[in-house]
Amino acid sequence: MSERVIMDEAAIQRTVTRIAHEILEYNRGTDNLILLGIKTRGAFLARRLQQKIESIEEKVVPTGTIDITQFRDDLEQTSNHSNEKTYEIDVNITNQVVIIIDDVLYTGRTVRASLDAVLQYARPKKIGLATLVDRGHRELPIRADFVGKNIPTAREEAVSVFLDEIDSRNAVVIE
Predict the structure, then answer these.
(1) Residue 117 to residues 57, 105, 111, 140, 143, Cα–Cα distance (Å)
(2) How far apart are CA 66 and CA 75, in angstroms?
(3) What is the rounded CA–CA span in Å between residue 160 and residue 173?
(4) Alpha-carbon distance 16 to 31, whole Å?
């Protein structure tokens, strides 16, 4: 199987920098701003955005992770939703501006699940969506507010994001 590199390490770094600036413009700074990354790669991208925003604004934005496993509609449900929070963050996100971060936006089902996970326990003032790659083929009416790169793909193609934190390389490839 051949792979075509769409974004290399430098392109990913530039994209994270641009998205950080766009989020700051959207929110008019860091006040009431929360970043929540969808496990696994979205969480690492959220940390990178947090670091970039800190270097720009010299303020630390609270950042956490979302586990959407129990909210997915494409897996057989083994139990009802537990009372355990599905996101991990050290601050209350009610009445805050929450930006959900994912690596690839595809059908929209992961994002729908992340919205359910957040809204079950909190009522943010506003929720935005940032994604490194938007590959199209939406099944739900979901659109990202911040997109690193739009990559038109065929359904049979796979878009893979590799991040140094877990993959020992930084790249976005189509296989």
Answers:
(1) 29, 17, 10, 17, 18
(2) 17
(3) 5
(4) 20
Q: Please report, for residues 42, 73, 131, the alpha-carbon distance to residue 38 in angstroms, rounded to integers and kept in the order given.
A: 5, 16, 10
- CA neighbours within 13 Å on the CB side: how many for 9? 7
Please report the domains of the chain, with CATH numbers, ordered by start residue.
4-72+85-157 (3.40.50.2020)
| Dist. CA 166–CA 92, nearest whole Å | 28
Query: Cα-flanking dihedrals φ and ψ of residue 160, to 5°?
Result: -120, 135
First and final C-alpha spacing in the chain? 7
Length reported for the chain:
175
Lowest mean pLDDT among 3-17, 60-74, 93-107: 60-74
State the CB neighbour count (10 A cutoff) for residue 59: 11
Model pLDDT for residues 91-116, shown as the tens digit of each residue: 999 999 999 999 999 999 999 999 99
Q: Which helix (H) or strand (E) holds 4?
A: strand 4-7
